[in-house]
Amino acid sequence: MLLIATFITFWAAAEVTNPLDALATCATCDQSAYDRLIDLYELDKSVPERYVSWLGDFVSGDMGQATSQGERPVSEIFWERGLNTLYLAGPAFILLTILGTFAGVYSALRQYSAGDYAITGISYLGLAMPTFFFGLLLQVVFAIWVPKYLGFKPFWSSGMHTESPLQLLRSLVLPVTTLMFVLLAGDSRFIRAAVLDIKSADYIRTARAKGVSERKVITKHLFRNAMIPAITLWSLNAAALFGGSLITETIFSWPGFGRLLIDATFAGDLDLTMAIVFAITTLVVLFNLLADLLYGLVDPRIRYD
């Protein structure tokens, strides 16, 4: 999967970008400048050969230079921006998992109650609302309306402020809320459906008929089995969050993986683009592998040799 994803990305980027274009408007550049770029980017070789060369350098620890970031080493920018994305992804994933599970289980156990209808309505709103619209809405409310009518600005609406832990927290609230809310809608509906499906299973009725307490029925039998399909959803969410959210990071000017990938792609920065794509693909593969392993812990019927 890693080889396929990185080769397709490398091939596509190599086809649409040409480092020599930067010299097209250079009146003082001679043939030596072109020869230097051809040698630097191996433009005289085929795309498969260039990919193999890049892959060999990458796995040996040489990620190249980020031409769109002042020729800084890609490895330096990679870890710096990855940490910034982690600041967003970590809290968003924890809150998403806790709130999504609680909302889904509550709605299923109290089906057709007022709480179920309220959670369902909010979920439909989240599913129908695009990420960019919800992010911009939060910016309007907390950056314009609240300061205008209440006289203070509780949260930062743009950028990453690291002057103090409090300032960092103020910077995190709106982008984390945006990431969490949009995914929370789908998670709560998915978990609700999983719990409802298991709620009417024969072994649940048998457990109640044997006199097992309702709390034990929910925690040991119902909740545990409902988490099996939810683990798959969580693994996909984790990969999406930790891989960087393109829209959210762009809206809130957050210096993370997502925004960096957009900047690198538009600038034709092949080394930087490839490093980020490799990281995102690796996260998807690893989190799906982790989900497969967790199945065996949650469901005793599943065992791995």
Précis, in short:
This protein has 305 residues and is mainly α. It has twelve helices and two strands.
CATH architectural arrangement of the largest domain = Orthogonal Bundle
Please write the string of helix (H) and strand (E) elements.
HHHEEHHHHHHHHH
As for the CATH topology of the largest domain, it is MetI-like fold
Number of helices: 12
Instruction: Give the tally of structural domains.
Output: 2
Tell me about the largest β-sheet.
2 strands, antiparallel
Q: Termini distance? A: 23 Å
- Give the overall shape: globular
Query: Nearest-angstrom radius of gyration?
Result: 24 Å
Instruction: Write the CATH homologous superfamily of the largest domain.
Output: MetI-like
Q: How would you describe what is shown here?
A:
The protein contains twelve helices and two strands, in the order αααββααααααααα. Helices cover 75% and strands 1% of the residues. Helix 4 packs antiparallel against helix 9. Strand 1 and strand 2 form a beta hairpin. A two-stranded antiparallel sheet has the order 1-2. The chain folds into two domains: 61 residues, no CATH class; 221 residues, MetI-like fold (Orthogonal Bundle). It is an all-alpha fold and 305 residues long.
